[in-house]
Every structure is written in structure tokens, then in C-alpha cells.
Batch of 2 targets.
Target 1
Amino acid sequence: MDRIVVVGASAAGLAAAEVLRREGFDGDLTLVGDERHLPYDRPPLSKQVLRGAWEPHRTALRGQEMLDALGARWHLGTRATGLDLAARHVYTAEGGRHDFDGLVIATGVTPKCLPGGNNLAGVHQLRTLDDALALRADLLTKPEVVVVGAGFLGAEAAAVAREIGLEVTLVDPLDAPLIRQFGRQIGDLVAELHRSRGVKLRLGVGVTALDTEAGRVSGVRLDDGTAVAAQLVLVSIGSTPNIGWLQGSGLSLSNGVDCDTRGWAAPGVVAAGDVANWMHPCLGVRVRVEHRLNATEQGTVAARTLLGIEQDYTPVPYFWTDQFDVRLQAYGTPDANAELTVVAGHPAVGRFAGIYSASGRVVAAIAWNMPREARELRQRVVDDLVLR
Amino acid sequence: MKVRVELDRCVGGGQCVLAAPDVFDQRDEDGLVILLQASPPTELHDAVREAAHACPALAIELLEE
């Protein structure tokens, strides 16, 4: 294998590139990324960057010297537009062509839009560094804020907006924030946390339309007939995998790039990160994980697979969210149908750890301001994962 | 090898403790990293590199000699 192209220059693509070199690949290495920035870290965007605690450069994933040491060719601000699997070419928007023997697909996801799009002035999404800087600049004009979608991103951004003193309304069609990820018990605690800090919650209602005034958003209409005034609306209603450029390539695409248990999407082609829809060897179903640690771990395994050092990818997902003074962490995959049992601390004192069980197995360990305990409980998730 | 940790980046995920428990621990109160050895012996270097690679918050810096 002489030429490897990595499409996607964020956490997963960078991890793959570094591991390729670490495992001895000394051929041509090319990274193609559609953003103009060198690789940067996304979790701080909705936290430190939005709050203004970090200058944007602190999100850089590596210093220039470490990037130089990779000995790679970088094509940033360059969108991949097509893949010819038989001829082994990747095409880019500028009419470029990159030939490969091995290909890593790590093109990530794009935020979903409200019907009608996110193009109205004052309507934001939050995925990229440029998105975060634009959102922060607009927050500093002291608008009334509506956040549509109470998942991780929306709940974190709502907390930051409230902390900088703004009137914030968090809207979600479900009955509690984070309920999809953590179920009702934690969802209710997160709702109470936001309420206690002055965030208005509009739960169980959907958005039907945006009001406009002088070419800018002025409010949000809800499906219960009410409206909320807003000069800034953040739309955080999930993401879709960036697979449009692969349509017609012959790769199997469903909810992302379909891969086997080791990351193969096709001979000589692997995928990693938010875009990869892997067959989980223990669970027997495809999983696509949009968490930060997964980008690194899957990028690592995908790179090794490409070099013939094949191993099944059996992660124990780790993810966290920071909202106000709460850090909520999880190992494994909690879900709304699993049962949560608190095993240390207590919700009433704002500090606890617990396990989620489903069908007699531990599927996740979580901690609410109790990190050490969650890490120790993680082993129970590992034990039950390998038993399946 | 010299190891440095940045507490204001650390998110308390404990991935470093899982990879290299002889070099890293976590504080009780907030889970942030405790560096047990800033100059770990050679036999721990691979584990420490693994910890730095796995850190989801880029809070571990290695100075290789």
C-alpha cells in the first residue's frame, strides 16, 4: 500500500493518520478536509468557546510541529465530491483527483435544519468552529434566545447562554431534555437543573414556523398555538452523516457508511467517526456513535485495519456533558428503556453514580458530579458486553 | 519521557487511568487527573502514550526525550 487518502480532517481522520504513521506506513499520506481550519476539537465549541473562556486557537488538536511530523499533504477547505471505487480515485470540488490504494472515510455529520433551512439571519447551528464564533458574536448582542432541541448540544448551549445572562427558552417535542439519551429520571433532573437557573422549558411541543421581522428571526411558533419571542434561535435537532459524496460509488450506505466489525466498508476502504455505521461484534447490530472518544478510538482501529492489523472494534463508549455546575458522564450506552439504579451518592445532594440495566445486563454506568465512581462502575459494563 | 497534564482541559473521563493506572489517578471530588509520576520508567511509556492518545480532552502532553 503506497498511497492512503484520509477524507475528513477532524478528530477521527487525524487519529487515523497518526496511527498509520505510528504503525509504520511511510507512503504518501493525504488528508482532505472541507473546513479551512487545521484539525480542532469540537466538544469545547459548545462549552469554553461559546462561553468565551477559550480563544479559538486552544481548540487545535495538535501543534504545527506535530502536524508537520506526519509528513502528510493537506488539502483543507476542500470538499470531497465523489469516489470511484474501481479506479481508486477521490474527487474534490475544485476538480482535484486523489489516487489511493487505501482510503479512510471520516467525513462526519451535518446538523439538521428546520424545514425551510437555517439561512435566516439570527438562526444558528453549532457544528464547526466558525458556527461557534458566529453564535457567540450574536449572543453578545443580548438577544432573547430560543434553543430548539434539548439534546447534548442544545442543553449545553442553553446553559451557556443563560450563564452569560440571557433570557433562554429551551424547546423540545419530548417531555424532558436528554430523555433520548438517558431516559426519564435523568431527563427530569436535567430539566430541574435548567429551571432552577432560570431557563424556560417548553417541553412536549414542536416548532411549526419562525417569525421574521426586517429579514431577521423574531420568534418561534409552537404547535400548541403559542409563540416565543427570539432574536436568536439555535437549531440543535440532530445531525445526518455526510455520505452524499459517496452516493453511486457502490459503497453500502444506510445510516452512514456501512462497515463490518473491523471497519471495512469495501476492500481497501475503511470508515471511522461520526459517519461510520459499524457492525458491533457483541451487540450484532450496526451502531453509529457521535461521541468525541469514539472518533479517536475508531480512527485508531480503522487505520490498523487498513494496514492489515485487523481487530474487531468493541468500544465501551464514553461521553460527557457539562451544564451549569453539573458534569454528567456515561460509559456504555444508556437508553431510555433501560432501568437506572443509583448505587452511590444521591440525586438530592447533587452527586450520584448509577448503572443502567436492560434484560438483566448492565448497559451503562453514569455519574452526576461523581466521576471516579463511574469509572469504577465501567468494568461492569465491560463484563456484560463480552458476555453477549 | 516527561508527562504534563492540563487541569483546565481535563474532563475527568478517566481514560488515562484505564490505560496507565501507575501514572494517572483521578481526584475524588471532581474526577480531574492526578499525575502520579511525571517521569515514568521506560516500561510504562507505551501505556502513557496510549493514555495521551485516548484522552478525549487533549489534557496530557508528552515530552519525549
Target 2
Amino acid sequence: MSLASYLLGIGASLLVLGFAVEQLRRRRMRERHAVWWFAAGLLALAASIFPRSLDWLASAIGISLPVNLVFFTSIAILFLVSLQHSAELTTLESKTRTLAERIALLELRLKSVEDEMDDDSV
Amino acid sequence: MATASHNILVVVPALNEEASVGAVVTSILAANPNVTVLVVDDGSTDATRDVALAAGAHVASLPFNLGVGGAMRVGFHYAIEHGHDVVVQVDADGQHDPAEIPALVASLDEADLVLGARFAGVGGYRVRGPRKWAMVVLASVLSRSLKTHLTDTTSGFRASGPRAIALFARQYPAEYLGDTIESLVIAARSGLRVTQTPVAMRSRTTGAPSHNALKSAIYLARAVLALIFAYVRPASTYATKVVT
């Protein structure tokens, strides 16, 4: 492994971590969403600082090519994040739907109250 | 007459039905002078709202399209707010005959939910192919589950009594096919009595029914999926979408 690729790995993981922290700091991402990116960034940082740990872990669980462990972990995290997003989306849709229903009913009630007031003032 | 002793709300979900909704509202009121008609304008972009108001209906306008399930949830909430003890659902395309409403309501004496069945011997409504298989499968599964004989489970012409209104206002499914299939499963799992009464269908005043084979096959698959999920759903998830 060349020095350049070693530094590239560290730089990339620091970028992910920095981005997650910055989003959290500006309240543009809630913790429960940021926690995945945070975990991914920390894992990537550990693996890029100590590449040997990757070799050791891969052989310990019987993966012959250590890079496959990296791919597997990345895909697993992305998969879980998108699963979480689908669930959140469903919750949001159901909340918007409920709000829309409430608005329709409230509009109707407002109109009938206005009509009553018009009748009274005549 | 059965309709006189009840406080009936007729709910008409309508999406871009300006051509037919006026006539539907007028004929409902002509055949049943004692009922209140609520047209739920499901995000229409045409004059549905104005036409319905002019015809003498109350109109609740949804800000965007929610589907029949969402529209009916508005109807059930409105019924509870205004003390209606019967909710009758009628389609805005004119295929349901408002003169049949008293027959549906009369059957509520022995049931909580009455379906207007389109194939039970009256009228000339026929379907073929996958859509027919879907209806047969649904009818046999749901009949067994509800311990009654149903032939037309996807009918949009139905009457709900007080127990059904209270249940559906809390948990009426809003997904595609949920308003017909899953609502019956919810009724079954909540112990409601469901029955059907034969009704004649009129041909639609506007639009064309879908009889495309591929569409029918997709419909069959989605219907079976909806049915399966309705049964495996934990009872606790029903109560989460509550608005009171």
C-alpha cells in the first residue's frame, strides 16, 4: 500500500465524519439519522489507520480477500439506512395524510360557522 | 321506510368527476330527501367542488389526492362529529343507483356493515378473466372469515352502522385496495356483522371501466397481497393512525 492510498483512506473517512458532525451541529440531521453515518465514518477511519486490523478480521471470519469485508460492511450499512428511510417515509406520509383529512374537516366546520354568523347578522 | 328512522350521511368520494357528480348528488337527494350528502373532493383539479355545492351537497375538499380510503376517513369523522348513525358510500361516477340506498340501510337492522353486491342476480354487470378470479378468491376467503355469504367484496356501494362508523373512524385503511379488502378484514377481526344485499348497477355515466388483461392480472396480484397482509398485520398497528 502506497502512502498516497493510505492517506486517501484516512482523508475520506475524516470527510464523512466531519460532514456528519457538521450536519448534527447545524440541526440539519437528527441523531437517529446521523448515527449510521457516524458509525460508518468511525469504522472507515479505524480500518484506514490500521489496515492490518482489516486483514486480521477478514481471516478470523474466513474471508480470503480483506477488501470484500469492506464491501460487505458498506453494503450492509447502506441497506439498513435505506430500509430506515422507507419506514420513516411511511410514517411521514401517514402524518401528512392525517393532516390533510383534518384540514378538510376544519375547513368545512369553519364554513358552517361563518354561514351561521352571516345568518345572525342579517 | 327504513331511511326515516336513521340520521343518514351519504359520502361520495369524488376525483375529477365534474361531469357526473352533480347528477349523482341530485338523484341521491331526490330518492332520499332525509339524508345529508357529503361529497369528499379528493384533490380534484376540475369543478367537482362547485358542481357538488350547486347540487346541494356539503363538500369537504382534500388539499391533495388521498384515494378512496382517505376520503372515506373524512366521511366517517364527519359522521361522528355530526351525530350520523349510518354512513352510505356512493361512487361519484353514477354507477350506483341511489334508489337502492333504503334497501342497504334496511339490512343494517341485522348487520353492522352492508355491501351492495353487483352480481347477486340483479342487473347486467359482468366481468371476465383475472379480475373475475380475483373477485372469486376474495369473496370465498372473506366469506369464510366473516362467516357470511359474500359475492362482491370490492363493491364501493356500502352502508355502515354505528359500530362500523366508530371502528372505521379510528382505523380505516388508506392504501390502495385497503378501503375495500382490508376494511372487511378489520371488520372481521373486530367482530362486526357483515352482510350483502343485491343491487343493480347502472352503466357509468362517464368514463370507461378497465378491462385490460394485464391491468386485471396486476389487480389480482395486488388484491391477494393486500388480503394476506391484512390478515398477518398485528392488531396493535390498527390503532396507531388514530385521529379523534
